[in-house]
Amino acid sequence: MPTRGEDTRARIVTASAALFARQGYHGTGLSELLDAVGLGKGGLYHHIASKEQLLLEIMLEPIDRVLASSDRILAADTDATTKLRALGDDLGQAMAADLSAWTVFLREYSALGQDGKTQVLGRRQAYLDRWRRVLIDGAASGEFRPIDLAFVESILGLFIYTFVWARDDTPAQELTNSIMGVLMHGICTPTRSA
Length: 194
Hints:
Layout: H1 4-23, H2 30-37, H3 41-47, H4 51-75, H5 80-97, H6 99-107, H7 114-141, H8 155-165, H9 172-187
């Protein structure tokens, strides 16, 4: 069970992610941040080291979660098609659960210092490498046609932009199915059903 301090920190991260997603990191002032989290300056800085450190934490939390879940997906004894669909479902669920943080992840990268950028890019690369591995395995097994894997760089953007611009009443699973339907249609060999 989380402590009160952990609950407060989680509330700070969630409220800040929503503000940064809506107004941008640089467009969000300290007073707005304090109002959103219901703390004074001393209370806020008791839980976070700096605004930039808060930004980094917002960006790392969602990617760390999908890194862990994608490891479990890749470890499963299933074919590449099943793994690819599972990666898509997992990412879609992650987007739906924490779209503000994912929006910040995509849009606010340039506001980080070099160390923060290195951490975010390293995790992003590690995550996309999991998608590449499944696509390579699927091509080797004949499930997928050989493709230029450069497109994998766009996967996070494809999901984030679809979720950001979708109507609020569109269910997350429907959005995920649409994205994965296009992806599967484009990569599956003609003998396999997309």
